[in-house]
Amino acid sequence: MSSHRSDTATSLFVAHRNLLFTVAYEMLGSAADAEDVLQETWLRWSAVDQAEVREPRAYLVRIATRLALNRLRSAQRRREAYVGPWLPEPLLTSPDVADDAELAESVSMALMVVLETLGPTERAVFVMREIFGFEFDEIAATVEKSPATVRQIAHRARQHVEARRPRVSVTADEARAALDAFRVAVETGDVQAILDVLAPDVVLISDGGGLKQAALRPVIGADKVTRFIAGGIRKAPDFAIEPAVVNGNPALALHVSGEFDGVLTARVQDGRIIELYIVRNPQKLSWLGEELPLSLR
Fold it and tell me: Do the strands 198-207 and 272-279 form a parallel or antiparallel pair, or are they unpaired?
């Protein structure tokens, strides 16, 4: 490749890198896998004759989505043998992202969990159409289906997601206030205060991957969730909790004996927590730990 072609390929890839990463992350629920997809995308892109590419953005997204789709199909088989619930890998994001409601929603843990219930092709179609606004013809070329078939898949996927995604939007300040109240209650060991910030039918999902202690199935109900949290406090008395922004939304970073131990994100409604997601699997936290500010390590 000539120097000019190399410079052009590099500049185009860099210009679309954030988009490609987000597409891959939305597809795979893993920042580490998304980075691997980016590397593979670059290798394929760098071998392409740029003069023959009319729409670099669409071309790059097509490469990344196909690579992510192949990985997702393979990953689903591994997830069937996963110990306990499988949650997406947390993604550390800047505080500014939480102020962009649309972007924060697209990478929120709540939506990512819903996307896990879609099949690989459905997920690819939903991400490309509903989140990034690609045309049906572009999506059809990516997933190798006809435009008519893609329209049907998009309709089914949208219905599936809408039936399960949050119906009430919550501002970052509202979510932060609920998490702050939860954090203070946990730090002080105030059981009643924990109960007060939890909705009666709250659901807690924890992911330890068989490597860290976690509930093997969702914990449902404020009383049961409070007992689960209180039990965790008793087993790890030397703990600390600090605010963070994860997946575009306010979150909490958990530390035990000075070591980064997990991430807690929540879905809030009417000022109370209705869903709690706790990721403790160290394999999903290594990427996040590298990116955490020193004050949160």
Answer: parallel
